[in-house]
Amino acid sequence: MAGFSGPHSHHLPAFLLRLRELGVTDVRLLKALERTDRRLYIPDLSTEEMWEDRDHSIGFGQTAGVLSLVAIVVDGLKLQPHDKVLDIGVGCGYQTALLARLSRRVYGVERVRPLTRQAEKNLERDGVLNATLYSGDGHAGWQMQAPFDAIVLTAACETVPPVLFEQLADGGRLVAPVDEGHGEEAITLFKKSGETITSKTIGRGEFPPLVPGRVSDD
After folding, report:
1. Contact, 211 vs 181, CB < 8 A?
2. Which of 127, 24, 14, 141 is closest to 86 using CA atoms?
3. What is the DSSP string of 82-138?
């Protein structure tokens, strides 16, 4: 696969092997991961830290998620090139870039307004042109752009806000970390068929909570 080269590239094979052990084998996703330079998104990320599988501070009291968990979440959506995606909890924009490289269009919601603006700059630097961001409360989704073929939450909730299922297209997929009260969240894949929602656990990990409201710097 074409991708990064240089002094950090020897860390990549080990990380890709880790993903395969976790069941993430989609070639399109692996190429998107290899193509998307995290140093464009995470402040002061060094070359040596590029493929470290841990979270990183992105300012404003927020963190970029553990890389393998990001991969599991995105992989669970099984995105197709024609899909329209809603990304709730954009953060620095890294996951948004992955989604954009796997789909037709991404609409992202981030509650921290200055972080939204920073993510927009990050995506522009990375040449991502098919993502549109909005600063608002993720609980409400983005009704004006619905329906979505896929929706992803990067923050944990006890129950997925019902409005998000309403904004999901028939046949659509939604992935969210669901807090079951055991210390780790169940990364859950929901599928919509007519009025029926089915679910299954596709992984586990720790995620920040889904917080209501919007943070402005005005």
Report:
1. no
2. 141
3. T-EEEEE--TTSHHHHHHHHHSSEEEEEESBHHHHHHHHHHHHHTT--SEEEEES-G
Average pLDDT of the chain is 90
pLDDT at 207 over 60: yes
How far is the C-alpha of 101 from the C-alpha of 36, rounded, in Å? 9
Q: Work out the number of other CB atoms within 10 angstroms of the CB of residue 169.
A: 15
| Strand positions, DSSP E, the chain | 56-59, 62-64, 84-88, 105-110, 131-135, 148-153, 168-179, 185-193, 196-205
CA angle 192, 21, 66 (to 5 degrees): 70
Q: Which CATH superfamily is domain 9-205 in?
A: Vaccinia Virus protein VP39 (3.40.50.150)
Candidates 43, 37, 154, 17; CA nearest to 98 is 37
Q: Percentage of the chain with pLDDT > 90? A: 70
- The Cα–Cα gap between 93 and 193 comes to 30
pLDDT of 11 reads 78
pLDDT tens digits, 163-206: 999 999 999 999 999 998 877 899 999 999 999 999 999 999 98
| Burial class of residue 76 in the structure, from the number of CB atoms within 10 Å of its CB (0-12 exposed, 13-18 middle, 19+ buried) | buried
Residue pair 3/31 in contact by the 8 Å Cβ criterion: yes
Are 78 and 100 contacting, i.e. CB atoms less than 8 angstroms apart? Answer: no
Return the higher-pLDDT residue of 213 and 182.
182
Q: Note the pLDDT tens digit of each residue in 6-18.
A: 334 447 888 888 8
